[in-house]
Amino acid sequence: MAGALFALVASGCGTATTEPAGPASQAASEFALDSSVSPEPTPKSTSATGSETEPVNLDSSKLFADNCAVCHGAQGEGQAGWQQRNPDGSFRAPAHDSTGHTWHHPDGLLFSTVSEGGRDIPDLGVTSGMPAFGETLSPAQIVAVIDYLRTLWGPQERDFQAEVTANSGDRFP
């Protein structure tokens, strides 16, 4: 059961639920037909010397809007039919609100899914189109995005997810 639930969390973009608003939305729409297409995450900042620096943006709602909403929806509602598989066997981008299941997973699993993506999750036999954001978002930004997801859950889901995390020992790195 955990594998099936994780399959939905780690899924990638499928068919958008709203009208495409720009290139990133178009990429999300195209993903349903071609899993090699994924939206481009917001890049890390660069210092005056040209070296990469850690981003300073920890505005969780903006991070979600800029990096996640193109696939998961502006309100975390997921894509239409997110429980269904795409033609390539991957799942569509799931809901991250109370109607979804993200809250069934411990913090560490959520963190690694955002950081490493979900193209192939061998332990669970899941293929996903979720792109990796570990090269784009700092660890603190990934935690901020996950904290934002919690705002989309009700109190019972937040309590359940906290218990799952505590019992599993799978916490943020």
Structure, explained:
The protein has 173 residues and is mostly helical. It contains seven helices and two strands, in the order αααααββαα. The chain has a two-stranded antiparallel sheet with strand order 1-2. Strand 1 and strand 2 form a beta hairpin. Helix 3 crosses helix 6.
The major beta sheet can be summarized as:
2 strands, antiparallel
Numbering strands along the chain, what is their spatial order in the largest sheet? 1-2
Question: What share of residues are in beta strands?
Answer: under 5%
CATH fold-level label: Cytochrome Bc1 Complex, Chain D, domain 2
Summarize the amount of helix as a percent range: 25-40%
Number of strands: 2
Text of the CATH class? Mainly Alpha
Q: Give the helix/strand class.
A: mainly alpha
Task: Report the C-alpha radius of gyration, rounded.
Answer: 15 Å
CATH architecture verdict: Orthogonal Bundle
Number of domains: 1
Summed up, the helix count is 7
Distance between the terminal alpha carbons, to the nearest Å? 25 Å
Order of helices and strands: HHHHHEEHH
Name the poorly predicted regions: 1-12, 14-51
The averaged pLDDT comes out at: 73
Shape: globular
